[in-house]
């Protein structure tokens, strides 16, 4: 039984592993094709090698044919190994370049995010100052309006009081005027 953690199936993980498998399979297939070509080259080199033909022609040197064949195989395999190493080095250099570019882009993004964070913090501070200033101005204006409203209410009450006094004075004046008219009418009737 394995002690490896078992992850639940995840479509993204599945896609990643499927892509890795396809890439690896294609790489192995390419490698097999190259080895097949290399073995054909080895067979052609062996069949057309002048040294092997010369060794075969003399019965005293026939036993060295195997050694020459081994040399040709080793030489071809060495060339294959060197070409694979060169290809891997080139691919590795490309990956390193990509990693450097990605890391550089990542670092730039981090710096930009830090810059945005700094700008956001500055804007937040300015906003909070402006908000506080606006709130203070609002409270001051509200207080002023409350005072004005209080004064206006007092003015209205005073005007209402004066109006009442004026009405009472008018009623009293009208009453006095009626009495005076009645007295005048009585006086005219006596005359």
Brief summary of the model shown:
The protein is mainly alpha-helical and 191 residues long. Helices cover 90% and strands 0% of the residues.
* Mass-distribution shape: rod-shaped
How far from one another are the termini? 142 Å
Oligomer: single chain
What order do the SSEs take from the amino end to the carboxyl end, as H and E? HHH
Low-confidence stretches: none
Can you tell me about this structure?
It contains three helices and no strands.
Essential attributes:
single chain; 191 residues; mainly alpha; 90% helix; rod-shaped
What order do the helices and strands come in, and which of them pair?
Blueprint lengths: L10 H38 L1 H8 L7 H126 L1
Helix pairs in contact: 1-3
């Amino acid at each position: 039984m394995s002690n490896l953690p078992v992850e639940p199936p995840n479509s993204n993980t599945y896609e990643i592993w499927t892509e890795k498998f396809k890439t690896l399979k294609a790489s192995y297939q390419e490698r097999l094709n190259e080895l097949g070509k290399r073995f054909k080259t080895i067979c052609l080199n062996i069949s057309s090698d002048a040294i092997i033909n010369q060794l075969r022609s003399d019965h005293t040197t026939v036993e060295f044919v195997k050694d020459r064949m081994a040399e040709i195989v080793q030489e071809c395999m060495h060339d294959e190994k060197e070409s694979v190493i060169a290809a891997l080095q080139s691919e590795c250099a490309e990956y390193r370049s990509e990693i450097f570019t990605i890391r550089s882009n990542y670092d730039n993004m981090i710096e930009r995010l830090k810059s945005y964070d700094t700008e956001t913090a500055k804007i937040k501070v300015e906003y909070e100052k402006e908000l506080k200033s606006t709130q203070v101005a609002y409270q001051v204006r509200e207080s002023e309006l409350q005072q004005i409203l209080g004064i206006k209410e007092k003015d209205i009450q005073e005007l209402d009081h004066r109006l009442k006094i004026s009405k009472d004075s008018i009623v009293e004046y009208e009453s006095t005027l009626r009495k005076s008219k009645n007295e005048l009418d009585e006086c005219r009737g006596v005359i």
